[in-house]
Amino acid sequence: MAYKDEKLHEEKVFKDPVHRYVHVRDRVIWDLIGTKEFQRLRRIKQLGTSNLTFHGAEHSRFNHSLGVYEIVRRILVNFEDRPNWNKEERLLCLCAALLHDLGHGPFSHSFEKVFKLDHEEFTKQIILGETEVNVVLSKVANDFPQKVADVINKTYKDKLVVSLISSQIDADRMDYLQRDAYFTGVSYGHFDMERILRVMRPYEDQVVVKESGMHAVEDYIMSRYQMYWQVYFHPVTRSAEVILTKILHRVKQLYEQGYIFKMEPTHFVSFFEEKVSLEDYILLDEAVVYYYFQMWAQEDDAILRDLSYRFINRKLFKYVEFNPNLQMKEWMELYRLFNQIGLDPDYYLVVDSSSDLPYDFYRPGEEEERLPIHLLMPNRELKELSRQSEIVEAISGKKRTDHKLYYPRDAIIQLSDSQPEKKKIFELLYQTE
Amino acid sequence: MAYKDEKLHEEKVFKDPVHRYVHVRDRVIWDLIGTKEFQRLRRIKQLGTSNLTFHGAEHSRFNHSLGVYEIVRRILVNFEDRPNWNKEERLLCLCAALLHDLGHGPFSHSFEKVFKLDHEEFTKQIILGETEVNVVLSKVANDFPQKVADVINKTYKDKLVVSLISSQIDADRMDYLQRDAYFTGVSYGHFDMERILRVMRPYEDQVVVKESGMHAVEDYIMSRYQMYWQVYFHPVTRSAEVILTKILHRVKQLYEQGYIFKMEPTHFVSFFEEKVSLEDYILLDEAVVYYYFQMWAQEDDAILRDLSYRFINRKLFKYVEFNPNLQMKEWMELYRLFNQIGLDPDYYLVVDSSSDLPYDFYRPGEEEERLPIHLLMPNRELKELSRQSEIVEAISGKKRTDHKLYYPRDAIIQLSDSQPEKKKIFELLYQTE
Amino acid sequence: MAYKDEKLHEEKVFKDPVHRYVHVRDRVIWDLIGTKEFQRLRRIKQLGTSNLTFHGAEHSRFNHSLGVYEIVRRILVNFEDRPNWNKEERLLCLCAALLHDLGHGPFSHSFEKVFKLDHEEFTKQIILGETEVNVVLSKVANDFPQKVADVINKTYKDKLVVSLISSQIDADRMDYLQRDAYFTGVSYGHFDMERILRVMRPYEDQVVVKESGMHAVEDYIMSRYQMYWQVYFHPVTRSAEVILTKILHRVKQLYEQGYIFKMEPTHFVSFFEEKVSLEDYILLDEAVVYYYFQMWAQEDDAILRDLSYRFINRKLFKYVEFNPNLQMKEWMELYRLFNQIGLDPDYYLVVDSSSDLPYDFYRPGEEEERLPIHLLMPNRELKELSRQSEIVEAISGKKRTDHKLYYPRDAIIQLSDSQPEKKKIFELLYQTE
Amino acid sequence: MAYKDEKLHEEKVFKDPVHRYVHVRDRVIWDLIGTKEFQRLRRIKQLGTSNLTFHGAEHSRFNHSLGVYEIVRRILVNFEDRPNWNKEERLLCLCAALLHDLGHGPFSHSFEKVFKLDHEEFTKQIILGETEVNVVLSKVANDFPQKVADVINKTYKDKLVVSLISSQIDADRMDYLQRDAYFTGVSYGHFDMERILRVMRPYEDQVVVKESGMHAVEDYIMSRYQMYWQVYFHPVTRSAEVILTKILHRVKQLYEQGYIFKMEPTHFVSFFEEKVSLEDYILLDEAVVYYYFQMWAQEDDAILRDLSYRFINRKLFKYVEFNPNLQMKEWMELYRLFNQIGLDPDYYLVVDSSSDLPYDFYRPGEEEERLPIHLLMPNRELKELSRQSEIVEAISGKKRTDHKLYYPRDAIIQLSDSQPEKKKIFELLYQTE
């Protein structure tokens, strides 16, 4: 039997708190899960620093990747005998679902920003490079790794396949909303996925949703909206993210300045020099990062030491609301005062902005352009969701942004009351709110 | 106001997936949670290697410790106005609940076995030593750290207080059963804790349970039984544990033999030499262990390299059932054969035994002697649980043991079919089952 | 001890699927639950005909009333030591919460429409009249029954007390959304009530919500929106409601025409004559209604017999979308055709309209005027919810109406294909959609 | 296409709180659900009088019947391609599952006892008699109604089919345990059905369970045990059952004595005379029974009036533990005293016994003989469950019986303290406990 059609002698299941069970019958999928590149996702948390806010959020990207695979698997069971659906694409969909996050590193967001990396690029490299994953995929067909990479990269010719993995209601989002809700314990993030799966239909170059399922989709969009503001952009999580980013900035700066580290930051050198090989990238999991942070909490450089200590021991920055347009004067004054008291404002006075677009009907030319959701009407026509749903219309295309100013309150409080800057700083901070 | 009575201006809550919210009003508790020794528990998984079997089980001891605190807090709300209850012990109970696992290190079980450590001893040292935790506790009263240590050590004079934290139905067990069930996703581990809390009563030197709650307690005992065999003793988890233990053995042995490591195992030296200081102990969190394992997967020593590689990439040992009494002959033959094919049997042919005593009425002189559960009858007499419950009686005092023989099936399979040992080994292995 | 302060020797609990347990300590509450007027609520379904759509929705008003009581009880535990809260009102709040639906009869909506009744009026009569409930309440104080009636009637002087029971985020709504979701099994209707309860504050003449809880309130509003359209206005439920209403119309009409019933409709006579005494009203529970429907399914009058048979055996009307403004011509033509084929259109061609206002900031002068929800800002000012929440603003004040035309498809289908009306009727019906 | 193979144009789903969705594709199933005999099950509560103890337990037999159908449907999806499974039996299994409780009347237990009825006999009559159900089944094949009746009656030749519907781990039990747990809200009754379904295998003349699923089965057996004692045999439920039975006894006795009822008990006459026709039986749903009870609460006969009033208004009997073997003397004395104070002891002093056999390996010749559960071992042999599971062995074959003595405490309390019987009665009652 061809490798691509090989079934396990007996179905394997993973116990999954969100989908109850993840089912694996295909030999290819089983082999992919066993590769070291996929196992590495166990050592990368799905939500980065969110566990410092929600102590349950320790779940890994391994976890999520299995979940996305399982959702696509269930969708395809429903698609099996439908017109418009090409059964030949089944294995490709499953592999792309399983591997879509393969290139994620620890704390991707901060690392990518500071070291100018792109996890999607690494996903591609892992799939196409000299890896265990590539060996497995190549056994299916010579061009199979490229196909999988194309689907994940959204350049695959069959857009219907792409839309299963990347759209405004794809398996990725449906899994992470539910999973992140489960592990954080928040009561948002629930929607009737079983119903959505039942009303999904393949339709030309996209997956659409039968109109009768519109309310379930509304509920999903609202869940997404709530999860963004309640969990993903939680101000405490962002505080940890700010510190993390500043650690990376500092250590890079020190390296560039020829600073002598107590322990050579071997794993980081290629990151500092912005020429990261695939091998270096794969080695750098979350444990390694934590290990270095602990080392750096004992470095001589006061800023690196302090920030690393703060991250490890969760002595986070506090925040006030901040409007960057209206409050530049206050900001500049604070900047001056921080310098005066010896707190480098580039590290200790940080504006962080989050913004979200809960749903959009169409955003041509934007960085992450995702297809709008289409409803399949009883007359077989399509209608874009926000034209049918008042609720979705109300939030559609509305970008909401939130700015906060982060600073180490503990350090300011420790200043002597006789230091005039102390009072001024607090006055300015409370004014910004 | 005395520090011990200080309340936070506003109640703080932690979102908890198991208890919904963990509530903190006491300044002392809030300060303890903020110490670096307590924050360190975030970097130690509650279930060690279980996440390699149940991918959701990434939750930390931080998580569990807050849960135990919350359960005790709820119990004490119920006790508040009851006779037999000394309100003065409230803060002591809460602190002991919160801190009872403070001395746990990464993969405690294996580390303790190999390096002859005792996490309870470290818990005591952290509470009584020069730590942030000790600073906070000492502010309550000079003798308060000692009291907390005594409760955790079960030597505190008021046994009623002790029994809240350590008995056969204590807050510790009630939290971990539910929490481990939640994060693994198994459907065991559920029982009606709310009801148990409502029927708990302080009674002389122990917490007892009103007879009307007997069925809820039965359910709890059964949950415990199921969790042990379905989760805690899962054979795949034990495989990872076996490998982990063997890594530690190997690295210690190499150190003792003067082996030159590519990277000096600084963090481990005092462990190898069995003179671990508190400071060394605290530094060694799970991230550090994983970091070393990754280093060791690149060492020259074949055994250390192979085992570390296996652990990191989840290439685990397989197992067969094994009866150490009846199968010594097979075992010795396998031992010989393993040597012959160049697999050191001390590292690659491992018997692992698990045993559990789901409930016991009385076990004087045993290593971990826990009080039996007593029911409070309508006539105010006490009756030991197994005398009232047929189900509990049925399993009471019955120790169940399970032995498995672990070995690297992949390595045996890779032997050439022409090697006569290959066939013999498989024959012997299947014979043991 | 005064009756009003009397506590039960031991707390009583009701196992409740939604709130886990309903706790009763007050003698007064316990006695009220035991009255026959309150027990009667067991024989009236919370959701009338919804069980014909959602087979789980068999839960009673008894069920819901205990739930509302329990929510108010929990709110008051939080209010206990807050400024602005008058502890003396506690028992009044609990009684009003428990009894607020006391005057509901079976299928209230239809009965009230056809027989011009008002369940709020009967609630008042039961509280103030010669009933077991009145006996219990009067033992608290002579004017206590009147106070309870006033709170339920929203005329009580302390508007803070009123707003616990009747506002846009009162205990009534919080219970029924969750309860109806639980029993129907839909995945809407969930929100984080525990969090809402924690952020509720007494504030002058209303209950307000701390701004930090805004997202939980948004979630509640969305749940409400979804429950209305997914459950309460489900078109199949409305079909059953249409038939039920027509049965009552028919039987009243027959009575007025002097029709001789096979079995005298004794329980209904005072309803037909629109002079229903309290005693008559209380006797008419759902079992009695069903009994009569079964009798009427054997009556001589064809319309009454058919409609009753349909209701009992769930042979419901089908529906098409209908726009009463644009489709009067089609409607009149259908009316004519129905007459022609011998189906009285007054009974067999029924337009039903549902409309909902998910949230409103202010609707002075409207029939059911409920207070808007106010957020308590950090600076102690109030802000009306829709001014802070984009989502709520989006749906605020927007009344959505849905019209459907109900008709007995089975009867039309049974017409001979040679009857020209058959084809015409179907053409007209499909045109309306 | 043959009627038996006809599929609905589009799958129909019922929202079900327990199984999420019940799926119907077969035209035959859809038509059966629409029959009036099946719809009648909506008017019969699954748990009879349990709602007087657990207010959520209002769910109907309709509800449960759909659930059993859905479980069998899911089992058969798993069986589809297995050896030993005859696909031709699929529709038969589904119909038998759906209809297995069709003959249940209101409060079956009491009615059957008093009027010597047998609901299984009526199930058969409905399936084979002149009913809508029979019309549907006969369209499949002439002998199909008889086959369905045979499966339900356990006389069908293919015992594998029978064991799906009636065994110690059949679809019936799996549904009711979960459903009754859900609606009562108790935390027992949960087990991992999804896992059990996955490990079920057709094996010669029975359904067996793969050994790897043993723990899930243990959990199911324990759930059953707990549900029996916590829910089904709850003493308050039994109190209501006792009163109900006595009402039926009394009214039958009165009828036999020629008592003149205010309202002729038409629906009951054939029950009193023990010659109930199918038509009479079907008419008597729960609403009709409640209607009569309300009438009888206004009868002249003091016993009938009082008992009916008690049932309707939940003024139940209290109970004490009672040992019928040891306490005959006390019983006789109480009997005498009750007579003396004018409370007919045949109606007011009632011993009720409940007993359960949670699991049995084999009970040949017993009234309800169910197959033991067999585990399918890795070597393809079968082992009876209690030989493998210690827990099941512990409770296997152990019948547990509980006796209680019910009496109207309110009536005794109302006796004057000067009446010497009062004191004696209470002394005797407390002695029995």
Describe the structure.
Chains A, B, C, D: It comes from Gracilibacillus marinus. Chains A, B, C, D: Residues 61-177 form the HD domain. The structure is a homotetramer of 433-residue chains. The first copy, chain A, is α+β, with helices and mostly antiparallel strands and 433 residues long. In chain A, 51% of the residues are buried. The first copy, chain A, contains 23 helices and 9 strands. The radius of gyration of chain A is 24 Å and the shape is globular. Chain A has helices at 27-34, 36-39, 61-79, 90-99, 108-115, 119-128, 132-140, 144-153, 159-165, 171-184, 193-199, 214-232, 235-256, 269-272, 278-283, 286-296, 302-313, 328-340, 345-348, 385-388, 390-395, 409-413, 420-432, and strands spanning 7-16, 20-26, 200-203, 206-210, 318-321, 350-356, 374-376, 382-384, 400-407. In chain A, α1 packs parallel to α4. Chain A has 2 domains: 3-233 and 359-397, Hypothetical protein af1432 (Orthogonal Bundle); 235-355 and 401-432, Growth Hormone, Chain: A (Up-down Bundle), CATH 1.20.1250.30. Helix content of chain A is 52%, strand content 12%. The longest helix of chain A has 22 residues, at 235-256. A 4-stranded mixed β-sheet of chain A has the order 3-4-7-8. The model of chain A has no long low-confidence stretch (mean pLDDT 93). Chains A and C meet through α12 and α21 of A and α12 and α21 of C.
Q: What's the tally of helices of chain A? A: 23
What is the fold-level CATH name, i.e. the topology of the largest domain in chain A? Answer: Hypothetical protein af1432
The gross shape of chain A turns out to be globular
Please count the beta strands of chain A (DSSP E, at least 2 residues each): 9
Q: Which structural class do the helices and strands of chain A define?
A: alpha+beta
User: Which two chains have the most extensive interface, and how many residues on each?
Assistant: A-B, 41 and 41 residues
Organism (chains A, B, C, D): Gracilibacillus marinus
Protein name (chains A, B, C, D): HD domain-containing protein
